[in-house]
Design brief:
The complex is a heterodimer of chains A (about 290) and B (about 350). Chain A is mainly α and about 290 residues long. Chain A contains eleven helices and two strands. Helices cover about 75% and strands about 5% of the residues of chain A. The chains are: A mainly alpha (about 290), B mainly alpha (about 350). Chain A: This is Branched-chain amino acid ABC transporter permease.
Amino acid sequence: MANALLIQVLNGLVYGGLLFIVSVGLVLIFGLRRVVNFAHGSLFMIGAYVGFSIATVAGFWAGVLGAAVVLAVAGVLLDVSVFRPLRRQDPIATVLVTFGLLLILEDLAHTVWGKDTHTLPLPEMLAGSVDILGQPFPAYRLMVIAVAAAVGVGLALWLRFSRVGLFVRASSIDPVTTAVQGVNTDRVSALVVAVGTGLAGLSGTIAAPLLALSPSMGGSILIESFIVVVVGGLGSFSGALIAALAIGQIHNLGIIYVPWAATMVPFLLMVAVLVWRPTGFAGSHV
Amino acid sequence: MSRATMNLTGARVVAPRLSHVSWLLLAVALAAGFGLPGVVASVLVLTLLTQAVIGGMLAVGVGFLIRQNGVVSFGHAAWYGVSAYCFGLLLRHEVLPAELALVLALAVPTLTAFLLGLVIVRVPGVAFSMLTLAVGQAFHEFSMKAQGLTNGDDGFAIPLPDTLFGLPIAAVQQPETMFVLCWSLLALVIFGLYVTVRSPFGRLTEAIRENEERARFIGYRTVLPRAATYAISAFVAALAGLLFALYNGFVSPEVLHWSLSGSALIMAVIGGSRLLWGPALGAVIFFFLKDLAGNLTEHWPAMIGVTVIVVTVLMPAGIAGTLAELAGRLLRRTGGRA
């Protein structure tokens, strides 16, 4: 019984970890630009497809790396062509433009990869399972948890100890004062948006063997990561981590114990948190 | 509670009286609705127009929220869909006569939206959009999961009665008559919203939209009026959903899906929400473009995506706003000469 529960907790960590990698991209972009990227889920979806295409030619790991790089480049373009020109306007303008991008990207995926669902096979090295307290657990899922942990630790160190990290934290508290201090927020922003979208690409490819690839897969991950970001507190790195892990567990345990209500639980949690604290767990700083 | 209502009624902003022109415009709009089916011979065009007017009603609800609260909802399909489901379920399980079901189908979403509004309007700007998207999708999930109640993914046909308020049910299912009904209701809704916007309540919500903190400093409660605005816009969306249910006689989770919320928002953006009728114009353009594009290309989503971006960046007032501005300039020029 205890072992079975452990397996469920691990499964929850897999989902929570993926959610974290996607949501943290939104958090970073919000921290710097004070805007929400509604195309973020579509970038996850495009990342999965790009990873799938590269992986079928050059192997799984090349696919993961390739998707992250391609999406990071797309992120720079997104910052230069959308976020920067619209920065003096109402944030709603950016929301609407990225919503337009969402429609375009879904159509693009339809056109390039077709309407049929694809599946990315597991890398051979991780196709087996590992015994945990006598229970088999897929090795690939352990790898997903490891990647999520690595991303979390890496980002935390980067934000805490690097110069750019300092700028990002400063900017998320007060972008104007930070710019006045001589920080080139535009250049920092291009980098940060690239990291955020690159992570969307990375998580898309990593999630690809677990999900079926379809152009509409971006929608559900977008909504789930919105819940994470709102519950955690917009722009809060640690808030997003806690919220993602909590929702991963709740989602997973919900499927087992209250299957008819599983998908509703995160929404109810979100409303409850907002009644209690309208700005989320952690307020709004990175 | 009493203090809040006192503050609402205590807003002694002098609201200008409705001009004769606005009554005249309403009469003209109603007459045009009755006249149009006689002029448009094609049933196909009339069907399309009826859909556009129902979609336009939903978009008017979304636009009203943008105009009065300054926030963008990505989840108005929830109220549209809850209304349609409410009506359908009450008839399917033979709980109430159709006339009462009709009333409940409007009351339930409006009240739910008001209660939810008390929670979510406190969330600022962009986060509000994210929340409405999530809440909308929660209703969608529920309609899919509650198999026993809603028949899940497949939806169900609504067992409509033979007569409704003494009128034969065919009246709401044929485009010739349904168009007139929907059009008249849309005209009345826009007129009602116009009256609301010019009332002290409307002025107060505009003040809150411009600067909530200042409105609070002056002594107004700000959450209640914003939640009320949200409920009004939900009521308009619910009316649209009810008309849809009557016209199609069928509901499925599609009416709750976020892509419908997205389409309504697109209509509001294209038409422009500064003018109350802008989103309705946007809906007509949306439906006719969609019909046209359907014959020409498969890339309708990308086309509409590009349109949204172009309108947002180049025409923030939308097509209606831009037209009104041009008309205003033209009037001033001719007025100056006379």
